[in-house]
Specification:
The chain is of the alpha+beta class. It has a single domain, classed as RNA polymerase II/Efflux pump adaptor protein, barrel-sandwich hybrid domain (OB fold (Dihydrolipoamide Acetyltransferase, E2P)).
Length: 126
């Protein structure tokens, strides 16, 4: 299981890449493997400002539909439109081409509450 050390994580199995006050978010390798083949990613919250842990979209897999929770408060400034035609990128490259959204943080102190790679490994038993 791939859990890059340079990223932060949430208990909801999302990864967060921090670049100043902008963060890129996707789901972890563990999450995509648990979900199975992803057939659709829906994010209708672009240009909206959400509070931490609000639902910003959904991932639909063959087996189930899962909500996506925003890891930090802020405005969703970009959706990875590649996923509209190729949602399977989330399965094949969850930390690269399978990213989901970019968020402009409104409270960067919330980033301190995210899990480190080691904490996330402990959470999933890796």
């Amino acid at each position: 299981m791939n859990i890059p050390a340079e990223l932060k994580y949430t208990k909801d199995h999302e990864w967060v890449k921090i670049e100043g006050d902008t963060v890129t978010v996707g789901i972890t390798d563990f999450a995509q493997s648990e979900l199975g083949d992803i057939v659709y990613v829906e994010v209708e919250t672009v240009d909206e400002t959400l509070e931490i842990e609000e639902v910003f979209g959904t991932v639909e897999a063959v087996k189930t539909v899962s909500d996506l929770f925003i890891p930090v408060s802020g405005e969703i400034i970009e959706f990875n439109e590649v996923l509209e035609d190729e949602p399977e990128k989330v399965n094949s490259d969850p930390y690269g081409e399978g990213w989901m959204v970019k968020i402009k943080c409104s409270d960067v102190s919330e980033l301190e509450n995210l899990l480190s790679a080691d904490d996330y490994k402990a959470l999933v038993g890796a």
